Amino acid sequence: MSGTANLLDRFLSLASAKVATTVLAVLSTPIIVRLLGPTGYGDYAVLLSVFSLYMIPISAMVTEGVQKFVGEDRDDPGWTEAVVGFYGVVAVAVLSVGALLLLVATLAGLPSRFFGDGFDRYFLFLVAFVIASQFRALGSHTVLGLGLERIDGPLSVVNKFGTVSIGILLVAGGYGVTGMLAGHIAANVVVAVLAGVVVVRRLSLRRVFDPPTIPYRSLLSFNVMNVGLVLLSMSLYHVDVIMLRALTDGETTGFYKGALAIAEYLWFVPIVVQRLLLHSTSDLWADDRVEAVTALSGRVTRQILLFVLLLSVGLAPMANRVMRLYYGPEFVVATTALLILLPGTIAFSVARPLKAIAQGSGRLRELAVAMGAAAGLNVALNALLIPRYGMTGAAVATSVGYGSMFAFTVVAARRIGFHPLSDLRPVRIAVTAGVTAVPVVGLNRLLAPDVFAFAVVPPVGGVVFLVAAVATGALDGEDLDPVVERLPGRYADAVASATARIEP
């Protein structure tokens, strides 16, 4: 569709929505945790992890494929309608098989045998969740493929708001974990309907039902490879929760999931960039503009690393305060797990956009090998460390797995043909982080009341980090230009003058 045109505007459309959904998550998570309790929250976390992994062969047959191939904007008349129609059929076919298999397994009592009493009832709700989620995913990714980020963003906010508002009301009404699952189902149904309306209004229904000939074999080949790719990638942040629950108990899993949820908040910008780059870089790959892909990937890698480092440098010294204030005193036991997860989370955040760029090339074999190596290492370490060290072992295994994903993805990217570390500037970034850590750590130790510390430390750290990044050249004038252009005239001139001498 739009390729990389107006990339910042399209990023901001998704980013503003992601900020809104992250705020909703930040506000709602402690409420959900307190209403469900550590054990109930642990069971809920396991259900979401099982759902996410189970949905991979169902939704991955559709989502990235429809987004990529609709986004290629080929000149063939009816191409978009043919792609959407094809993926609609695939979506219904794989959903029918997947939902039926899950229902049969649930009626056979397998969930309760594996996780404990009560999980059979939960899995009945998962069947409905699978159905609703498939249609929501098809609609949302088609909207993205059409280049309508300004619409997809609000849809994600509707989904999140509906989930937490309905879920919390039902949990408060005494429905527990099933209430949260019902919130997910209701919100997904609403978003699926809204996305469907948007898509139908932009397509010719006649062409959908009477499409031209398209390379179905190429589309299917991409789908099959993508299922394996997504399964391997998603296992990195769900296997630990499932294995921890199976090998320990619900309370321990709840504490660990609390730490994991905090770490995952660092992903909100990388997730937006990942969603944007898959279809945005498909045009570059289709036109064989590899140098442009390298330039884009290099800049994205550096900017994402800087942003996530900023958040991590602020979070690490205050981790104990965050866990106590956010979840309650009993969750302080998970502080060590959170600190262990942070290095891997930084690496994983940088890897996510690179994965999307590599997917846009259509060469998934190299990427699948990279994801397979990281996933295999993650599973092996979790199996080795959880029985001995519990949630601390899970944190170590997961952090190493996250880090290996970045390393393996960089290797895969080079084999595909682009070089994501071409503009990294590691020394300048390290100096920026080190300079910022000094006042952040010092202020955190000096300021006693938690609320006062949270009001002072993050903004001071943010200002120091930005000044240090500009002074060291970790950020240059070209990085800042898109932001400067949106400032009022006199401020734009001042910032432009201050950054004019910065050289990468």
UniProtKB/TrEMBL annotation:
In terms of InterPro entries, this protein maps to: Poly_Biosynth_Transport, Polysacc_synth
Q: What is its main location?
A: membrane
UniProt source species: Halorubrum xinjiangense
How this chain sits in the membrane, per its record, is: Multi-pass membrane protein
Q: Mind naming one GO cellular-component term on file for this protein?
A: plasma membrane
Report the domain of life of the source organism: Archaea
User: One matching Pfam family, short form?
Assistant: Polysacc_synt
Write out the entry's keywords from A to Z.
Cell membrane, Membrane, Transmembrane, Transmembrane helix
Q: Where in the cell is it found?
A: Cell membrane
Regions crossing the membrane: 12-32, 44-63, 84-110, 122-145, 157-175, 181-200, 220-239, 299-319, 331-354, 366-386, 392-413, 425-446, 452-475
- Protein name, UniProt field: Membrane protein involved in the export of O-antigen and teichoic acid
Q: What is the lineage of its organism?
A: Archaea, Methanobacteriati, Methanobacteriota, Stenosarchaea group, Halobacteria
